[in-house]
Amino acid sequence: MALTQCPSCNKRISSKVKECPHCQFVLAGQSKEEMEREGFRIKQEKSDKLLSRSMLALLIAIAAFTYLFLQQPIPGTWQYGMSIGAMVAGVIWFLINRVQLLFLKKKKQ
Ligand SMILES: [Zn+2]
User: Fold this and answer.
1) How far is the CA of 75 from the centre of ligand 1 (A)?
2) Residue 93 C-alpha to ligand 1 middle, in angstroms?
3) What is the structure's pLDDT at 100?
4) Beta bridge partners of 58
5) Burial label, 30 (beta-carbon count in 10 A; 0-12, 13-18, 19+)
6) Which residues of the chain have pLDDT under 50?
7) Model pTM score
8) 3 alpha carbon to ligand 1 midpoint, in Å?
């Protein structure tokens, strides 16, 4: 049984399977070129999604920071808690997306 690489997730799979068991990428009936193109398209889509999500997260963090900076809510009030929470969540979300993007790029050969 020959092993091949899934063009979508790059995991080792049997060349006989019709569908990647890891990411359900359909392999049957497609030429090598088509598969590569499809795999590239999927990766591109994923990285686009991650990029726009990370931008959104960054925007949330910046908005919350701007609010904190301009309005200077009193510590202990819900406005203060909300803006700190949004800022932290935005930064963490941004970092998570960035790390995922990094891994996605690393897989690209
Ligand atoms: Zn796969």
Assistant:
1) 49
2) 26
3) 92
4) none
5) middle
6) none
7) 0.66
8) 13
